Amino acid sequence: MAEMVINTTSSSGNKTSTDNMYRYKLIITTLLGLLGLAGMPIGHTQSLEDYYRIAAESNPGLQARYKAFEASLQKAAQAKALPDPMLSMGVFLAPVETRVGPQQAKFSLTQQFPWFGTLSAQNEVAAALAEVKYQEFLDARNQLYYQVALAYYPFYEWKEWKMLEDENIILLESFKALATTKFRNGKGTMVDVLRVDIMLKEAQTNLDILNKKENALRSCFNAILNRSWEEEVVVKDTLEATLLIDYSKDSLLEGNPVLDIINAKVKASEAGIQVAQKQALPKFGVGLDYVMVGKRDDMDLPDNGKDVWMPMVSVSIPFFSKKYQAQQEEAKLLTESYRLQKEEVKNQLFGNYHRLYFQLEQQQDLLVLYEQQIQESEQILNLLFTAYSNSGKDFEEVLRVQQQLLLLQKKQVSTLVEWNVLKAQLEFIILGGS
């Protein structure tokens, strides 16, 4: 086991240049390395794309959508099938006497045929509705990916905040040890020790809250992936806010499942108009009757007892045509409704696109600002720490700048997470959300 001793004693004769801020930074970095980032989970880092794949394979909601699509494919086979033939049988309780013998039983087989093109129109409706189900599946997949991203990025924020709090505690403990030494040597006050002690308790409380937060984050994330809530979640060590690709607004309208759902509904309703028109036309039927005839015993006749075969043709007369006219009007109104919905979705897509693009640029500007402020705050802290090490004065200012630096570092992490969340949302609406 490696042991590290921090010597914070100072005397007028042997004070060295190592008693400065850089020494404590080095100590913190070394300790966090030895402690494995204070108990962070160790394992193979999985990218967000890895979790997308896991979610797509195991999420029951997405699987249900795909099963619904597969079920809709079976509708096409049903839509283009002819009606079942009708077979009827009858027995004469009192045989009907005819010249060639008594009729004993009758069998009828009929098959009805819709007007030409009706089945193909019905098949087109079923195919369009199957396309609706498929696009709904794609939309559900994209929504699932977005939900995974929303649950993934807070893990990175939690991990980074935890590391910052660990670092802050070690640094404050170093400050406390130095303030205690200064007080004992008569170069500081007990107030400095109490101030840093208060801040230490606050930092430890923040760290305890972060430790408790892990279970909630893990449970929500694993629920999306349909896994046990205790399953380990390992995220990337770094996130980036790379320069934005200037997505063309036209890409919002290409391959977008939400728009494709509406397009398929329009196609189905247009085909529904044809179906209603075809159903308003006559239907044809062909059939064959077979009558069993018994023989006459009282005389000998030609064709005595000969069975009867009788082909038949039937035509349905669409006398009550108002219902078919209503069906056509219904399909026309639905078509217009879907087209208006499509325009509304387009407007929402363009509005969300511009809003998200602005927010992404805003977060990038904040990241640049925070990086500058962090660098300047570190310089100020180093100068104040060196001055305090020499004079024992302005310790309150050292603590204030340290907490300001911690706040800026947390804001930087949160802004980086927010940038990635916004980017995921932008990709979601481009791939198929609204």
From TrEMBL:
Transmembrane segments: none annotated. Keywords: Cell outer membrane, Coiled coil, Membrane, Transmembrane, Transmembrane beta strand, Transport. Signal peptide: none annotated. Pfam families: OEP. Residues 324-380 form a coiled coil. It is found in: Cell outer membrane. Its main location: membrane. The keyword Membrane applies. It comes from the Bacteria. Gene3D superfamilies: Outer membrane efflux proteins (OEP). Belongs to the outer membrane factor (OMF) (TC 1.B.17) family. This is Outer membrane protein TolC. It comes from Algivirga pacifica.
